[in-house]
C-alpha cells in the first residue's frame, strides 16, 4: 500500500488496548512478561485465535477512525512487546526461567534461559502481518523486539558473552523481518528500550546488532526506545534525557522513535539525529485526560523547532495497551486532528 505523502504523517508505537473480554487486564497491568503468560488470556485455546482476530480488527478500525496514517495490528496477540517472539526461538528455555533484576531496578522478573544455539524455527508474526495487510488499505507497520533488548531480557547460559548472543538474536530477527517485508509490511520497527538501560554495553555492540537485524530490509525501518511504560514507571522516576541516543544515528534505520511527552524531554537532543526521521511521542500516556488538540499541536510545533516537517512523524508515547480503550482512541483522535492543524499552518 502507498505510504502517506503528506507531511506530519501520524502513526502509533505499536500497541493498542486489548479488550477486557480477551485478556485479564488486572493481571496485565502488574507485569511486562519476558516468559509466556498464558493465564492472561480469558478464552480457551480452541477459541483464542478467532477472538484475537476479532480484537485486532477492532484495533485497526479504531486507528483508522482516529485518522492514523500508518496503522499496526495493535499487538493484540502479544502478552508483551517482546516475549512472544523471544520464546518462540530454538535455544530458548522459557519453561524453566531464571530470575534477573527488572529494567526499573527494583524488582526481579522471570526471564527465558538461553541453553543452546539461537535459531528461528519458523515465522512468528507472519500471520499477524498477513491479517493486518488483509484488513486495511492504509500503510501498515509491524514491530519486532530488538536483538539488544532481547539479549538483556534473558539469562545467557550458552554463548561466550552477551554480544555473541545479541548477534545470534539479530540473525533471527532479520529472518523474521524479511518474511514480514514479503508479506506486505510498509514499515518495520525494532523495539530497543534496553539500550537506554545499559548504555555502556549498548555502545559496544547495539548498532552492530541492529544493523544486522535490518540487513536487506528495503521498506522504511524504525528503532524505538523509551523510558518505560507510564502504567509501570511513573514520570517522576524518568530521566529528562536519553543516555544512549546520538549513537543511533549510525544505524541503517530510517527513523528513530522516542518518548517525549511524559518525560518532558528536552528536544535539543534531536540535533544528534540529523540523518533520521523522528517519530516523536506527543501524547502523555500517564495523563488519564484526553489532551486538547491545541496541547498536542503545541508539542508538534515544539518538535518542528528541531526537526524539519518532512522528517517529523507524530506518535503517542509508548504503552498505549495499558490505557482504557476510550481514552486511547480519544488521544489518537486529538493527535491526528493536531497534526492536521499544524499541517495546514505550514503548508
Automatic annotation (TrEMBL):
InterPro entries: Met_Synth_C/arc, UROD/MetE-like_sf. Its EC number is 2.1.1.14. The lineage of its organism: Bacteria, Pseudomonadati, Pseudomonadota, Alphaproteobacteria, Hyphomicrobiales. It comes from Bradyrhizobium ottawaense. Keywords: Metal-binding, Methyltransferase, Transferase, Zinc. This is 5-methyltetrahydropteroyltriglutamate--homocysteine methyltransferase. Residues 8-340 form the Cobalamin-independent methionine synthase MetE C-terminal/archaeal domain. The keyword Protein biosynthesis does not apply. It comes from the Bacteria. Its cofactor is Zn(2+). The keyword Zinc applies. GO terms for molecular function: 5-methyltetrahydropteroyltriglutamate-homocysteine S-methyltransferase activity. One of its GO terms (biological process) is methylation. Pfam families: Meth_synt_2 (PF01717).
Amino acid at each position: 500500500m502507498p505510504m502517506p505523502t503528506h507531511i506530519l504523517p501520524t502513526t502509533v508505537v505499536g500497541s493498542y488496548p486489548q479488550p477486557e473480554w480477551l485478556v485479564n487486564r488486572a493481571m496485565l497491568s502488574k507485569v511486562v512478561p519476558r516468559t509466556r503468560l498464558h493465564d492472561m488470556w480469558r478464552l480457551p485455546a480452541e477459541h483464542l485465535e478467532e477472538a484475537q482476530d476479532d480484537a485486532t480488527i477492532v484495533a485497526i478500525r479504531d486507528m483508522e477512525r482516529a485518522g492514523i496514517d500508518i496503522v499496526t495490528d495493535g499487538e493484540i496477540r502479544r502478552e508483551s512487546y517482546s516475549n512472544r517472539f523471544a520464546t518462540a526461538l530454538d535455544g530458548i528455555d522459557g519453561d524453566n526461567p531464571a530470575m534477573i533484576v527488572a529494567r526499573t531496578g527494583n524488582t526481579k522478573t522471570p526471564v527465558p534461559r538461553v541453553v543452546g544455539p539461537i535459531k528461528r524455527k519458523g515465522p512468528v508474526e507472519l500471520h499477524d502481518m498477513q491479517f493486518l495487510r488483509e484488513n486495511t488499505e492504509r500503510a501498515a507497520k509491524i514491530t519486532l523486539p530488538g536483538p539488544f533488548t532481547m539479549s538483556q531480557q534473558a539469562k545467557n547460559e550458552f554463548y561466550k558473552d552477551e554480544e555473541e548472543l545479541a548477534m545470534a538474536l539479530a540473525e533471527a530477527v532479520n529472518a523474521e523481518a524479511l518474511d514480514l517485508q514479503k508479506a506486505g509490511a510498509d514499515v518495520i520497527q525494532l523495539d530497543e528500550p534496553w539500550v537506554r538501560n545499559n548504555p555502556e554495553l549498548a555502545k559496544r555492540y547495539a548498532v552492530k546488532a541492529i544493523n544486522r537485524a535490518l540487513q536487506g530490509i528495503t521498506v522504511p525501518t524504525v528503532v524505538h526506545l523509551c523510558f518505560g511504560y507510564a502504567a509501570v514507571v511513573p514520570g517522576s522516576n524518568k530521566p529528562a534525557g536519553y543516555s544512549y541516543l546520538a549513537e543511533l544515528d549510525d544505524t541503517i534505520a530510517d527513523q528513530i522513535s522516542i518518548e517525549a511527552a511524559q518525560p518532558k524531554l528536552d528536544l535539543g537532543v534531536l540535533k544528534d539525529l540529523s540523518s533520521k526521521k523522528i517519530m516523536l511521542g506527543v501524547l502523555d500516556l500517564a495523563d488519564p485526560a484526553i489532551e486538547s488538540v491545541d496541547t498536542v499541536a503545541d508539542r508538534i510545533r515544539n518538535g518542528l523547532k528541531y526537526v524539519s516537517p518532512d522528517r517529523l512523524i507524530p506518535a503517542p508515547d509508548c504503552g498505549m495497551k495499558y490505557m482504557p480503550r476510550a481514552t486511547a482512541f480519544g488521544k489518537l483522535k486529538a493527535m491526528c486532528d493536531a497534526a492536521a492543524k499544524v499541517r495546514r499552518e505550514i503548508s
